[in-house]
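quick one before i forget lol
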Amino acid sequence: MREYEVTIIVQPQLEEEARKELIARVSGWLAPNASDEDKPVENHWGSRHLAYPIRKFTEGYYVMFEAKVDPSRFVDIERNMQYSEDILRYLVVRKE
């Protein structure tokens, strides 16, 4: 298990309830059977202006997760993020 930071940009037009559901789903992908201690830490950065348009959106809602994840699981996690239309972009960084 290694520590990672996973940042996602969510579509700004998504309603509050749908956004919370998406964030919970991503948290579940990162730590599917985690106890309260091992759950990913969510840092909501809120709505920000994008440097360039992504899929015709000029703003996005940023969320950063800090989690301990087995590196072999990232193939499935990244595939899930790619196929989710509500996630504009994602970035996975391993913490030192």
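fyi The mean pLDDT is 91.
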